[in-house]
Each structure stands twice: as structure tokens, then as C-alpha cells.
């Protein structure tokens, strides 16, 4: 049991440090993963919590990706413009001019 607890703890630390979904974004991504789990596999939630497998980095990664794929779209308003005007013809025919 002690060995398994260490393994689960190591998984959790590895997940928190993961560059894809961890570090500063870990809490938000954990919430996203839990929402995906609730929507698509609520029957697994208790099993993953009791077994410790819910702390496995690949399990978290999978549910974060699922959560991102089902999350609401965001609006891009185009306000981030570099201020430089571009010739519309060069934009449209970039490879031919």
C-alpha cells in the first residue's frame, strides 16, 4: 500500500509539472478534465478517485483534451493588430507578387 501511495503521489507531482496542462494552468485544466469526466464517464469518477488512477498524467491529459474539445468557442475580435497597414493585394496574392 505504501508503494502504491508513493506511485500515485509521484503521478500527481508529474501531472502538476506537465508543460501541456500543468504548472500555472493546472487548476483550470483539472476543472476542465473533471467537467469532461462528469459529462462522458461519470461512472468512472469514483473508481479513478479510489484507485488513484485519476492522478495518472496520461489520464489527466486525455480528459483535459476532451474538455478542451467540448468547451465553448471563443471570439477573436481582431483587436490585436500590429498597426502596420498591409496591401490587400499582397495579402491575397502573397505567393505570386
Description:
This protein has 97 residues and is mainly α. It has helices spanning 2-16, 26-40, 42-51, 57-70, 88-92. The longest helix is centred in the N-terminal third of the chain and has 15 residues, at 2-16.
List the helices and strands and how they pair.
Elements (H helix, E strand, L loop, with lengths): L1 H15 L9 H15 L1 H10 L5 H14 L17 H5 L5
Helix pairs in contact: 1-4, 2-3, 2-4
Q: Helix and strand string, N-terminal first?
A: HHHHH
- Distinct helical segment count: 5
Strand content bin = under 5%
How does the helix and strand content classify structurally? mainly alpha
The low-confidence parts are: none
N- to C-terminal separation? Answer: 69 Å
**Biggest sheet statistics:** none
Range of helix content: 55-70%
Radius of gyration: 21 Å
Q: How many individual β-strands?
A: 0
Estimate the mean pLDDT confidence. Answer: 87
What form results from the Cα inertia axes? elongated
Question: Which descriptors apply to this entry?
Answer:
mainly alpha; elongated; single chain
Amino acid at each position: 500500500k505504501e508503494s502504491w501511495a508513493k506511485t500515485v503521489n509521484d503521478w500527481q507531482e508529474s501531472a502538476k509539472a506537465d508543460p501541456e496542462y500543468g504548472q500555472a494552468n493546472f487548476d483550470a485544466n483539472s476543472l476542465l478534465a473533471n467537467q469532461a469526466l462528469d459529462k462522458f464517464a461519470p461512472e468512472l469518477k469514483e473508481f479513478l478517485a479510489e484507485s488513484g488512477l485519476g492522478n495518472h498524467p496520461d489520464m489527466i491529459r486525455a480528459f483535459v483534451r476532451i474538455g478542451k474539445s467540448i468547451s465553448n468557442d471563443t471570439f477573436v475580435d481582431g483587436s490585436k493588430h500590429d498597426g502596420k497597414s498591409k496591401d490587400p493585394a499582397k495579402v491575397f496574392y502573397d505567393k505570386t507578387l
